[in-house]
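Example (one chain per record):
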Amino acid sequence: MEKIQAIRGMHDILPDRTPRWQHVESVVRRVMASYGYEEIRLPLVERTELFKRSIGEVTDIVEKEMYTFEDRNGDSLTLRPEGTAGCLRACMEHGLLHNQINRLWYAGPMFRHERPQKGRYRQFHQVGVEAYGMASPDIDAELILLSSRLWRELGIAHKLELQINTLGTAEERHGYRAKLVDFFRAHYGKLDEDSQRRLESNPLRILDSKNPDMRELIQAAPVLTDELGEESKTHFQRLRELLDEAGIAYSVNPTLVRGLDYYCRTVFEWVTHELGAQGTVCAGGRYDGLIEQLGGKGSAATGFALGMERLIELLESPEKLDAAALPHAYLIRVGEHAERKGAVLAEALRDALPNLRLVVNCGGGSFKSQFKRADKSGAILALIMGEDEARDQLIGIKYLRTEAGQTTLSQSELIPFLQALI
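Predicted structure:
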């Protein structure tokens, strides 16, 4: 029979790589708690209409990339392509928005039917952070400070650069949109196929084109900041002052527009030059109008999402993280009496030393075969119990990664010995 393999663009994360994920997840959890953000857990599947109304029907995500299907009741459902819409839906449904301030975060897989390449997969993982009920730029600054702290704690701050921009209000963008369409229409022959398609439906996305042949034309296009009112200008200026005061380096990128329709005012991206074309590691901004689009009462909202796969690619010396998850010890047991006594000893060691990583040989085998398993496990040392050791309450110690000689201890000496090891 033909072997069944994973779906293209949906990858297994094998045990030799999971320590890297666990490390990032633990840092994320710690930093979120330090800023007072609470975790929310959301469904993978939502009604398709949620994403059409939030992301925008004329975006690439909705037009080409969503995994959408009908369930048995005929309802159109979609695997979530991003997390913000689902988080807002949950907060509206459970009454968490009215006259309240919320700081929330979530993590998990997202799904988009894209052409798989390094750093871009059909099932990918994100950490999302959302803050509701705060309209002033200080919360935008807090999100950037929080993300900056994540990079420092992960040891990758030197690999990332911050870009910021403002998109103004929906009304300001409407006036700008008309000027942008007139400009690009006058240079229609210079637009690539993607940009020609976007000209009428979503012209701001042309500014985000990655086509190098479009760069000169985009740089000559009208600038959104020329259309901003005083309130939007003040909001952006205050954000810049807060970042300057905090010592956060950034550049203003006037072509930064983000790929989702719901953004307004502040937008930002953390980018790297170490991942090729997929250089955006974290991105977000303000989306004050989205709650009304989903049928709720208007409220301030801002947030960001970071890509776990891309973040993990940037980790320094990830091999050290992998090694740190290997067992401290492997317990070899040969003989029926040793198997029984060894199981009891292992539980006593785990009771006394909660941080001990101990693998107990199961499935029998000779001393030779069990030593091979112990070596393959990556353990630092082997604990050896044969029938004689079991009878006399002794344990053999053999180092597997150094040339230190083998020794024997009484089982009562084993706990302090291992305590020093871990």
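Caption: The two ends are 47 Å apart (CA to CA).
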